[in-house]
Write a structure and sequence with these properties.
Chain A has two domains: about 5-65, Orthogonal Bundle (Arc Repressor Mutant, subunit A); about 80-160, 3-Layer(aba) Sandwich (Glutaredoxin), CATH 3.40.30.10. Helix content of chain A is about 50%, strand content about 10%. Chain A is built from seven helices and four strands. In chain A, a hairpin with a 2-residue loop joins strand 3 and strand 4 (about 140). Chain B has a five-stranded mixed β-sheet with strand order 6-5-9-7-8, covered by helices on one side. Chain B is globular. Chain B starts with 19 loop residues before the first helix and ends in a 6-residue tail after the last helix. Classes of the chains: A alpha+beta, B alpha/beta. The interface of A and B includes residues 31 and 126 of A. The structure holds flavin mononucleotide (FMN) and iron/sulfur cluster (SF4).
């Protein structure tokens, strides 16, 4: 299992926390840092953040579970957020989501057998002018047709092998 | 197609981001210099009031009036918070602005903070705006280096520090009091109002929350004056330009800076390139997912606050989503309601329990299993939820339902009578 945060990151956060009046404001920064490093936020990540901020794990958990882009369960190397909101819906978003499910052979919320992709329906990504769209990790793609999706998936599979 | 004066998109070029050198070359930070050297904070507040600027975050509250509630005499800390949550479907204008020209927001915030005598600023930005987040960080570093941010800005004695906070994906964070909870690191349910943020905001201190586009207009009002700003609009009561993000069934779905008061028809035909695939216009959301649908009878309406209220909708955020004549409005409304139901923060019953019930009813009707009783229940849910929720999320969710019931009731009835969706 990958590290939660590097020793250097922990030192930096500690220094920052000592420096500010309301350390709790860093809770999302910390959770996001753990997720960036580890891929998702396991229980140990919640405990680490709680320890750094002087909070109980429960206090961190009620924040972590509120936000959709904090993953409290394992996700594939490339979490795919497929937009299901109105602008993408109006331009073929549903068909695109179906195509993704077929190509990856998974239902929404699941991870592909090779562990690379998790398919997560999401609300509007803020790229309504480029619908239908998806976001992989934090990279947005759009407008997309089935061939575009296939190409992106192939590229990422290749990247994962390299 | 008349050329519109470009204030906010003046420096925008496809695929590029303008940083300090270019921004200054195009007249950037002249507004800040003018404000700090020639104007008292009160004068700026007065100017903004006279400019007629209204909040661009969706509610349209007059900015000058909001600022007048801010207690100038209270000691620091006092906060200016910029809302770049921008998660309402159909709304992407703030993202476009920050992709093109992040210093505009930074300059607008420094002048606004000076006018309000706020000492600390936060920009709250959604998870998905990764590039915009990086652009802002760079712009803030550049502005600090150049002496526009930090202590004793340009020798004026005024100091202001600015932070960026990256969120982690929930629409309710756009509601200003939920946003403040989010910044504090507590569970981001909305707070009760009163007390309003101006009295007890971030960390219990006086706070003003404004939208990205609202704040980015301030330097243009300072340099160009209130009268010129008002004159930019095509309506008598209106003021300024507006960023309109086009989406849905149009040939061209881009974001444009156009006058407040431009007609829906002109936006669709001239800027959107007309309804796509040669089809006909059926309906649109004029200002984001929470604004009631318009119909072809409304094509000549001018896009402004009062004019859209007069036809039963709202100006909202200026995101125009168009639907062609093959669109099933029951299905469209169902999609919108599912969004709001999923994004409900769960705090109050009308929203947490009411929105899933509305979604279930619409789903039943869309699938051909609906009855007349379901339609009655839909109507009663609409009136039970409207006006009874703790924050404006559920109120906004009722926008499209209101439009559906007023303009497209026959479509609901057709689904029920035929026992299927007439469009599939
Ligand atoms: C559910 C909900 C979501 C909102 N989302 C946003 C948003 O993303 N951006 C925004 O500026 N205002 C949003 N608002 C409005 C804010 O509460 C607030 O009115 C606004 O930020 C004030 O800025 P303005 O006066 O400059 O428009 C939202 C309101 C609600 C109820
Ligand atoms: S209306 Fe109620 S449940 Fe819905 S988001 Fe607002 S506070 Fe939360």
């Amino acid at each position: 299992m990958a590290e939660l945060l590097t020793a250097e990151q922990i030192d930096q956060f500690r220094a920052h926390i000592a420096h500010i009046e309301h350390p709790r404001e860093l809770i999302i920064d910390l959770l996001r840092a753990v997720q960036d490093k580890h891929g998702w936020v396991p229980d140990e990540g919640v405990e680490l953040v709680a320890g750094l901020l002087g909070l109980t794990p429960l206090e961190v958990e009620e924040i972590a579970t509120f936000y959709y882009k904090i993953y409290r369960r394992p996700v594939g190397r490339y979490p795919i957020h497929i937009c299901d909101s109105i602008c993408c819906w109006s331009r073929g978003g549903e068909a695109l989501a179906e195509h993704l499910q077929k190509s990856l052979d998974i239902a929404p919320g699941e991870t592909s057998a090779d562990g690379l992709f998790t398919l997560l329906p999401t609300c509007c990504l803020g790229v309504c002018g480029r619908a239908p769209a998806m976001m992989i990790g934090r990279e947005s793609y759009g407008p997309l047709n089935n061939e575009d999706v296939d190409r992106v998936l192939a590229e990422l599979r290749q990247e994962a092998q390299a | 197609m008349k050329q519109t004066a470009q204030l906010l998109f003046k420096n925008r070029r496809p695929g590029e981001t303008v940083f300090l050198k270019e921004y200054e070359r195009a007249g950037g930070y002249l507004g800040l210099k003018q404000a700090l050297r020639e104007m008292q904070p009160k004068q700026i507040c007065e100017l903004v009031k006279n400019s007629g600027l209204r909040g661009r975050g969706g509610a349209g509250f007059p900015t000058g009036l909001k600022w007048s509630f801010f207690p100038a005499d209270k000691p620091a800390p006092k906060y200016l918070v910029c809302n770049c949550d921008e998660m309402e479907p159909g709304t992407y204008k703030d993202g476009e602005l920050l992709q093109a020209d992040p210093h505009q927001l930074v300059e607008g915030m420094i002048i606004s903070a000076y006018a309000l005598q706020a000492d600390t600023g936060y920009i709250f930005i959604r998870y998905a705006y990764r590039e915009q987040f990086a652009n802002l960080q760079r712009a803030i570093a550049e502005a600090t280096e150049a002496g526009y941010l930090g202590k004793d800005i340009l020798g004026s004695g005024f100091s202001f520090e600015l932070h960026v906070h990256g969120s982690a994906g929930r629409y309710i964070l756009g509601e200003e009091t939920a946003l403040l909870n989010g910044l504090e690191g507590v569970r981001p349910n909305p707070r009760s109002k009163p007390p309003f943020p101006a009295v007890r905001g971030l960390f219990g201190r006086p706070t003003t929350v404004n939208n990205v586009e609202t704040l980015s207009n301030i330097q243009h009002i300072v340099t160009g004056g209130a009268a010129r700003f008002r004159d930019l609009a095509l309506t008598v009561d209106g003021a300024g330009t507006k960023l309109y993000g086009l989406s849905g069934h149009l040939e061209r779905t881009e974001c444009f800076e156009l006058p407040v008061g431009i007609s829906l028809r002109e936006i669709i035909d001239e800027y959107g390139g007309g309804v796509w695939r040669g089809r006909r216009f059926k309906s649109c959301l004029p200002g984001g997912a929470s604004t009631p649908f318009l119909t072809s009878a409304d094509l000549d309406v001018q896009l402004d606050y009062q004019t859209l209220e007069a036809v039963g909708s709202r100006f909202g955020t200026g995101g125009v989503t168009v639907f062609d004549d093959r669109t099933c409005m029951v299905a469209a409304t169902l999609n919108l309601i599912r969004f709001f139901a999923r994004e409900s923060c769960g705090w109050c019953t009308p929203c947490r329990d009411g929105l899933p019930l509305v979604a279930w009813l619409l789903e039943k009707i869309e699938h051909g299993d609906g009855t007349r009783d379901d339609l009655q229940l839909l109507k009663s849910q609409y009136s039970n939820i409207s006006g009874n929720s703790f924050c404006a999320l559920a109120e906004g969710a009722m926008g499209p339902v209101d439009g559906l019931l007023r303009h497209f009731e026959q479509e609901l009835v057709d689904h029920i009578e035929k026992g299927r969706c007439p469009f599939s």
